[in-house]
Amino acid sequence: MNLSPGQTLGHYRILEKAGAGGMGVVYRAEDTRLRRQVALKVLPAAVTASADRLGRFEAEARAVAALSHPNVVTIHAVEEVGGVHFLAMEWVEGRTLDRHAREAAQTGTGLPLDLFRRIALPLVSAVAAAHARGVIHRDIKPGNIMVERGERGELKPYLLDFGLAREQESSGLTLMGAVLGT
């Protein structure tokens, strides 16, 4: 499903398309009930037709909702409206780490060590918190890390997209020999 600015999905008003990935399209939207901006991750219809893929989507929601960490994006709701399945999540205003890295590469200097440290250390804490709750991300990459600049200029990284996450207690691979993630 392709949503356009101004359209609604339940009580969410679409503001813009923010991105797309293997497990869905992300939109910036307004939660008209709570009057706040959120990110909606909408699953494509082809994915919801697959019990396995829909299960992974729901597992993402459970995995992330179980976490409470300042560097893990917060899940507000898992919803389905008119056959459209989606997550409503905290909206993070920032840029992905891969974009930061591309810009640094263009300067020929790479990411300064201090910047790397200010991003990496909170992410290590987020991954440790996830592991402590039995959640394995399985797709940590620069495109799944959003970096937001705070009011005082400080950087705050967020670990996003737990679409391939699994709980440690689960049986592991879903297909014999399958490798998921990056």
Which descriptors apply to this entry?
182 residues; alpha+beta; six-stranded antiparallel beta sheet; three-stranded antiparallel beta sheet; 11 strands; 27% helix; disordered C terminus
Q: How would you characterize the overall build of this protein?
A:
By secondary structure, this protein is of the alpha+beta class. The protein has four helices and eleven strands. It has helices spanning 45-48, 51-65, 97-107, 113-132, and strands spanning 8-9, 12-21, 24-31, 36-42, 75-81, 84-90, 94-96, 135-136, 145-149, 155-159, 166-167.
Helix and strand topology:
Blueprint: E1 8-9, E2 12-21, E3 24-31, E4 36-42, H1 45-48, H2 51-65, E5 75-81, E6 84-90, E7 94-96, H3 97-107, H4 113-132, E8 135-136, E9 145-149, E10 155-159, E11 166-167
Antiparallel strand pairs: 1-2, 2-3, 3-4, 4-6, 5-6, 7-9, 8-11, 9-10
Mean pLDDT: 84
Tally of DSSP helical segments: 4
- Number of E strands: 11
**Sequence stretches where pLDDT stays below 50 over 5 or more residues:** 170-182
Percent in helix: 25-40%
In this structure, how is the largest beta sheet organized?
A: 6 strands, antiparallel
How would you describe the shape?
Answer: globular
